[in-house]
Write a structure and sequence with these properties.
about 100 residues, mainly alpha, 4 helices, flat
Length: about 100
């Protein structure tokens, strides 16, 4: 086999690996939602508890940290256009719009 053939095979394998990893992560999130214990998921996958937490967070509304940042930025921009003012004193408190 020549270099081109091996490189092409490698790229196909890497693509397949990425697809299978996504499927595994989806199955992990489903198992967590079904109440399967972390200990059992760790045993089956070989992942650490911390890695399971990270995978679970990837399945949230915000997904990756970059997606979270974009969502927060968009929400702040929309609120600002509507005249909502922000300051650290308001952090975590409900305030009336425009205060």
């Amino acid at each position: 086999m020549n270099l081109d053939d091996i490189a092409a095979r490698y790229r196909r394998a890497a693509d397949r690996c990425k697809q299978l990893r996504a499927e595994l992560h989806q199955a992990i999130r489903a198992a967590q939602a079904d109440g399967i214990s972390q200990a059992e998921i760790v045993r089956v996958t070989g992942y650490s508890r911390e890695r399971l937490r990270q995978i679970a967070m990837q399945g949230t509304f915000f997904g990756t940290p970059a997606e979270f940042g974009r969502a927060v930025g968009a929400a702040l921009e929309t609120a600002s256009r509507q005249g909502v003012k922000f300051n650290i004193a308001n952090a975590g408190k409900e305030v009336a719009s425009g205060e």
